[in-house]
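Translate sequence into structure tokens.
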Amino acid sequence: MARSTACEARGAAGTRVEVAGWVHRVRTLGGVTFVILRDRTGLIQCVFERSPAAARLSCESVIAVKGLAVAEPRALSGVEVRADDLEVIAPAPGVLPFEVNTKTLRANLDLQLQERALSLRHPMTQAVFRVQAALARGFRRALETRGFLEVHTPKLVASGTEGGAELFPVRYFDRQAYLAQSPQFYKQMLVLSGFERVFEAGPVFRAENHNTTRHTNEFTSLDLEMAFIQSEEDVMVLHEQILGEMLATVAGECAAELDMLGASLPESGPIPRLPVPEAHALLRERFGWTSPPGTSGVPEINAEGERLLGDYARAELGSDLLFLTSFPTATRPAYTMPRADDPSLSRSFDLIFRGVEVTTGGQRLNDYDALVRSFRARNYDPRDFESYLNPFRFGAPPHGGMAMGLERLTERLLGLGNIRQATLFPRDRDRLTP
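Result follows.
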């Protein structure tokens, strides 16, 4: 007999089925044992008459059950399996690190992450990653329908994309390499190669020595790059469109998960824009908040500033989303296009979602000489970036792109409170296992 999932068994009343999964809950009443079995599709009730073996089952044991699927309105799914055969495939100990069959996990986050394979069994935890998968699926679909090519770029690189010290060194035979901070250089080279429109969903690594609720040192970046743009506005308009389609995918495919998690989707459509100089003034005048200087010496909007701007967007603009535009050129990477009318400001943007930055993007420099000057202005030796810079000598169209953090987007969408809850196996300053 072929195994049926819980979902399939619920539609097979009147037939004999075999279901298999984990024991979610056991209850014995008057010689009848009710076993709630859990698999990847949900829960189903199995009923055993006078079965000591069923009564002794421990939660999270892996079992297989055969029996007749019967319509039963009182059962949680409207169908139950009247069992006549039980196989204990893998028993679980009677005492677990924490219970998985409670409405919410009661273990603290550190213990959940330490026992990650166990905490991932909880339906609410699984719901997070089903929503996350739908976001990634919507991203891919939206771009493929617009003529973008999915690419897979190297994660071992010879130099950093963003510059600075946020690089993990790796021994590469007889020389030093690094884990990639971003696919940025490769995205641009592929645009220059004539593909024009490319995207990637893949891991990136940042050796940032922090330990906050919004940062990890490895995360999934949803990247795209496109040629023949007029300005960064073209990228922002595309971002509005693809984000709307990503949210529509979640709404259409994850209604049960959203309900379970108590999450609400933001409205899609045009997103308000706010230039960074105006944002600094707004923060001072409305909130009495002065943005501190960053590593470049220029004031930068930090996490608290983003939170306040998120509050402003929600209260005054009626939006969970806000584009910050025209960042100071000194605070952006060397490949960022300065504004022609004011070179101290750049053609770049961030997307703030419910008070946290989830996307960075903008227009890139496409002139070889201007790129070399920009790298030198930041005290980078152009010879260290020759493999990236050289293709610009052969003709580069105006182009731009963006990168969106999948885990951070998921955390903001679901209101989880910590990016680690939206990461299957987090890598942070203190965590390298499991």
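Note: The CA atoms of residues 407 and 422 lie 5 Å apart.
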